[in-house]
Amino acid sequence: MSLFGAEFLRNINQHLSVEGHDPPDVQFTPCGYLFLASEKGAQQLEENAKLQKKLGAKNELLTPVKLKQKFPWINTDGIALGCHGLENEGWFDPWSLLYAFKRKALSLGVEYIDGEAIGFEFKKMPDLLMDGMEPGSYEGVDKVLVRTESGEIRSVKFGIVIIAAGPYSAKVARMARIGTGDGMLSIPLPVEPRKRYVFCINCKNGPGLNTPLTIDPSGTYFRREGLAGNYICGRSPLPEEEPSVDNLDVDHDFFDKNIWPVLASRVPAFEAVKVKNAWGGYYEYNTYDENGIVGPHPYYINMYIATGFSGHGIQHAPAVGRGVMEMILDGGFETIDLTRMSFDRLIMDRPLIEENIV
């Protein structure tokens, strides 16, 4: 999925250009990722690197000595191994990509409606038979109720519906009785909002322009943000530290207690950083296995799901969009087989676990 996304961004002008407009510019910065592992995590990091290479990624494993040679700014105390991505890795402006997708869709005739989904209308389909259900009892969905910006409630009829509501996907799913019904409808969509902070810091003598996005074994990460010595950084809280999702207020103590000490230890130049800005946002967090859920719902014959990527959604968006399109038009995955990410794994209790991710 990540390789597909990288190829998509490389050819973004071909995919998302619109006549009469400037080509899309998502400001891709191909500096790679640098994952660091302690002695405890070194074997897992090495296994991940081998799997990535097998699947076509290009990376290099670096011992502490080689890390210091390649990145003199790093303190390798407590580090047993590093993995540096050499190609198709980096970061880009997500809002620019989102705008490019929307502009292209508009040019192809897509209509956008500003509103809030508040429910579904159900339709009895007595001729449809399903295992585990009494004949004639099946109810499908073909209309969604939407509250518009003016407060008016409209019923929108659809042939196919895709639940891709990010952190609020489970809320939309419950409107369709997913997680509250019987049989296959008894299994909820395990996605919820989780608040995460991003801090923008300034350090005049910090790592240079070619610095990769660096991930410490603690999960603390940082990368450059443009020029003038600016960086962004963050980390996920421990389970017992999860902040309230009632608002997007930033807890600056979280930086002082949990992020800055790690940064200053790993990059001595960061002892003299200054926080310039900070913001909060929501992950669409999959509480089951922290991986995306993609494909048809096993009960509804016209409902697909694309959510739960737990922080990797924008990176995988091109591949997920392609996969869902193929499911709808071709009846199955053609370009990338995403079967393992289906809702069925929740039914069969087969979590898709990844280690050493950020």
From TrEMBL:
<comment type="function">
    <text>Required for the assembly of the mitochondrial membrane respiratory chain NADH dehydrogenase (Complex I). Involved in mid-late stages of complex I assembly.</text>
</comment>
<protein>
    <recommendedName>
        <fullName>FAD-dependent oxidoreductase domain-containing protein 1</fullName>
    </recommendedName>
</protein>
<keyword id="KW-0560">Oxidoreductase</keyword>
<feature type="domain" description="FAD dependent oxidoreductase">
    <location>
        <begin position="24"/>
        <end position="325"/>
    </location>
</feature>
<dbReference type="InterPro" id="IPR006076">
    <property type="entry name" value="FAD-dep_OxRdtase"/>
</dbReference>
<dbReference type="Pfam" id="PF01266">
    <property type="entry name" value="DAO"/>
</dbReference>
<dbReference type="GO" id="GO:0016491">
    <property type="term" value="F:oxidoreductase activity"/>
</dbReference>
<dbReference type="GO" id="GO:0005739">
    <property type="term" value="C:mitochondrion"/>
</dbReference>
<dbReference type="InterPro" id="IPR036188">
    <property type="entry name" value="FAD/NAD-bd_sf"/>
</dbReference>
<dbReference type="GO" id="GO:0032981">
    <property type="term" value="P:mitochondrial respiratory chain complex I assembly"/>
</dbReference>
